[in-house]
């Protein structure tokens, strides 16, 4: 009976999937010394130098305090710097941060290949698209 509850529970199933994927993703990104979220943050800044912390939070779906902590860690490591203009904190990559871009892309590509190997290209792509659509529907107010 309990197993039925667990198998039919979106929370339990999503959490289980998250743990499996998180383990693989964190192992891959350990190679470059970044968390997956930090890697996405760096890519977002590279794509839009001078991006605001607020916009980074929206892109990453994180609270402002979480984004602030991530940025502070990346500033300490020498990957980012920020410039305050009025009430806004604008974020830029350093040369050291920009140099991580190919490594980050390599890690993401390795993860894509891992999911394709485990699920097949079509199922992996469809599952990702479906999870995104579900997240957006559940977040809608």
Molecular structure report:
By secondary structure, this protein is mainly alpha-helical. It contains eight helices and three strands. The chain has helices at 2-8, 10-29, 36-47, 53-60, 64-76, 95-98, 101-119, 121-139; strands at 51-52, 80-85, 88-93. Strand 2 (80-85) and strand 3 form a beta hairpin. The longest helix has 20 residues, at 10-29. The two termini are 34 Å apart. The mean pLDDT is 93.
Class derived from helix and strand content? mainly alpha
Q: How many distinct helices? A: 8
Task: Report the average pLDDT across residues.
Answer: 93
Assign an overall shape: globular
Q: Biggest sheet, open or closed, and with what strands and sense?
A: 3 strands, antiparallel
Low-confidence blocks of residues: none
Helix and strand sequence: HHHEHHEEHHH
Strand content: 5-15%
Helix content: over 70%
The total of beta strands comes to 3
Instruction: Calculate the terminal CA-CA distance, rounded to whole Å.
Output: 34 Å
Counting copies of identical and different chains, the oligomeric state is single chain
Strand order of the largest sheet: 1-3-2
What radius of gyration results from the CA coordinates?
17 Å
Organism: Cohnella boryungensis
InterPro entries: HTH_MarR-typ, MarR/SlyA-like, WH-like_DNA-bd_sf, WH_DNA-bd_sf
Protein name: MarR family winged helix-turn-helix transcriptional regulator
Pfam family, one: MarR_2
Quick structural overview:
By secondary structure, the chain is mostly helical. The chain contains 8 helices and 3 strands. A hairpin with a 2-residue loop joins strand 2 (80-85) and strand 3 (88-93).
């Amino acid at each position: 009976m309990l197993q039925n509850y667990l198998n039919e529970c979106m929370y339990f199933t999503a959490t289980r999937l998250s743990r499996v994927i998180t383990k693989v993703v964190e192992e891959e990104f350990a190679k470059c010394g970044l968390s997956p979220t930090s890697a996405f943050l760096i890519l977002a800044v590279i794509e839009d130098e001078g991006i605001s912390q607020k916009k980074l939070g929206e892109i990453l779906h994180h609270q402002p305090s979480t984004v602030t902590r991530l940025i502070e860690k990346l500033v300490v490591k020498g990957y980012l710097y920020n410039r305050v203009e009025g009430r806004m904190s604008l974020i830029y990559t350093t040369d050291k941060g920009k140099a991580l871009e190919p490594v980050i892309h390599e890690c993401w590509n390795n993860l894509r290949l891992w999911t394709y190997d485990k699920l097949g290209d079509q199922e992996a792509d469809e599952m990702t698209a479906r999870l995104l659509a579900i997240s957006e529907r559940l977040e809608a107010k």
